[in-house]
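Summary of Year 1 activities. Much of the first year was spent building the evaluation harness for sequence design. The harness presents a backbone, in tokenized form, and records the residue chosen at every position. We chose the following record to illustrate the format because it has been used consistently in internal testing since the harness was completed.
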């Protein structure tokens, strides 16, 4: 029973999410029936409408309902302001840190005075 309920709820969620894709799939599967019943341009078959106008109307209808849902949810949001009288910021505490002395870094043997003469800053041309 729980597997059926999980499958059913998953299917409902997927149908809601993929609503427009379901409409397009339904249109592709039942194109002849939709053309016969809902096509506005039956008198002009050279336009090859085949019920696309009906599909466009349904897609606009579902898109409009999707846009309405967030605005209704936003209308239900209630903002509360908390009183600020009881809150005060304390001054930051400074802890004295002991002075640390680091040993000097060992000098590499290859960094002698002759190698330092190779590196120089670039010349600025004004």
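For this record, the design step produced the sequence shown next.
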């Amino acid at each position: 029973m729980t597997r059926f309920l999980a499958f059913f709820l998953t299917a409902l969620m997927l149908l809601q999410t993929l609503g427009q894709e379901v409409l397009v799939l339904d249109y592709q599967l039942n194109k002849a029936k939709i053309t016969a019943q809902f096509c506005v341009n039956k008198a002009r078959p050279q336009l090859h409408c085949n019920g696309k106008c009906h599909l466009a109307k349904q897609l606009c209808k579902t898109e409009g309902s999707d846009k309405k849902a967030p605005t209704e949810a936003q209308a239900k949001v209630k903002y509360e302001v908390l009183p600020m009288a009881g809150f005060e910021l304390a001054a930051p505490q400074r802890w004295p840190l002991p002075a640390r002395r680091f040993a000097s870094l060992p000098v590499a043997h290859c960094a002698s005075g002759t190698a330092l003469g190779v590196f120089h800053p670039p010349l600025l041309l004004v």
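Residues 24 and 55 are 7 Å apart (CA to CA). Quantitative recovery figures across the full test set are reported in Table 2.
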